[in-house]
Amino acid sequence: MNFKVNDYLNKRRMESIEKRLSKQEVPSDFADPNDVDDEDVESRVLSIIDEVDSSFSFEEFVKSRGETHAQCYQSRNDVGKNITTGLVETHVNAARAALKMFEAGRNEDARAIFDPDLLVQLMKHKTKLEIYLSPFLHGMRYTSFGRHFTKLKKLEEIVERLHSYVQNGDTIVDFCCGSNDLSCLMKAKLEKTGKSCFFKNFDLILPKNTFNFEKRDWLTVKKEELPDGSRLIMGLNPPFGFKSSLANTFIQKALEFKPKILILIVPSETKRVDAIADYDLIWEDANLLSGKSFYLPGSIDVNNKTIEQWNNIPPPLYLWSRRDWTWNHKAIALQQGHITHMYHSTYTVGLHHAEPPPDDGIVQEMEISPLD
């Protein structure tokens, strides 16, 4: 499939050369007039293809759009091993050549250059590549593409749960902060409880609220730029990407810093953190973000109201703990009524229970009522 178009073009070029050579051997008095027209058409078609092929450089195009944007979309979850750079480049060149022929009224030539089957395949690739190509298509607005921001009311509920796990001197990192509301809400809550913390907020879009904001690609942040992991709490809402590929990339980057807590809003198909690092799930809530919990950044309807997004399958909210902090965080979760016993990992009762480990002498069914 990868070489179908190239093989066809090379074959046609060879046939054209053979025709020209054979024509030179035949006396002009016996030349067939039709051969002249066919050769002229063939020559012009191949000339157009060569012109298009030579005028498009995929490498230069990627470079011109910025290397850091391209790096954002290099994920461990590739969209498909069959979608290679060469394949996409070949399809693009063939499509451009066919379009020129179609505009000139040469429909059959266009069909020969760009088979309808290729068009179907290209549309399938487009569906899969939309998120991956968004930095090139949308430039610096890419974080708003294929992304949604969490509504303020839901962030307030998250802060109400998360603040109990924060200690004095911790640094809270929002690696894809969007409108930058989380840190402001958290700061206000912590001040009320007598805690003092630091904040770092990253994104490529400059928000209205620039509190401790750094306009930067999260994937370029280095380990030495942040405190030790035992002082780090990270999250919250990364772009999901195709089959959670971007979410996985953002989480993988966060794990390089070994934060003691990861608070995440990600689809359930995202790789479990405990499957790729030494972390334990403290709790998950599959219901908090149901309904109209998100909005589309920069989008308004005909009445100048922000467009809200209803999730048919809401992404859960997860609280992950680094394994050497698990018991501390489980104890806090019990005290706050976030879980009902030490091996209960669902915030909302009745959905899912983690398998309890072998009996180690700890009372597993201890019940603690929620605090007022």
Structure description:
The chain is an alpha/beta fold and 372 residues long. It folds into two domains: 4-129, no CATH class; 149-335, Rossmann fold. Helix content is 39%, strand content 14%. It contains twelve helices and ten strands. It has a seven-stranded mixed sheet, with helices on one face. Strands 1-8-9 form a three-stranded antiparallel sheet. α5 (85-103) runs antiparallel to α6. Mean pLDDT is 72; it is low at 25-31, 65-80, 138-146, 298-310 and 348-372. This is DM2 domain-containing protein.
Rg result? 29 Å
Q: What proportion of the residues is helical, as a percent range?
A: 25-40%
**In total, how many domains does the architecture comprise?**
2
Structural class: alpha/beta
Give the CATH architecture of the largest domain.
Answer: 3-Layer(aba) Sandwich
Let me know the average pLDDT. Answer: 72
Shape descriptor? elongated
- CATH class category name of the largest domain: Alpha Beta
Write down how many β-strands occur, each being a DSSP E stretch of 2 or more residues.
10
The description of the largest β-sheet is: 7 strands, mixed
Distance between the termini: 64 Å
Sequence of secondary-structure elements: HHHHHHHHEHEHEEEHEEEEEH
Q: Top keywords for this entry?
A:
2 domains, DM2 domain-containing protein, 14% strand, alpha/beta, Rossmann fold, three-stranded antiparallel beta sheet, SAM-dependent_MTases_sf, single chain, 372 residues, disordered C terminus, seven-stranded mixed beta sheet, elongated
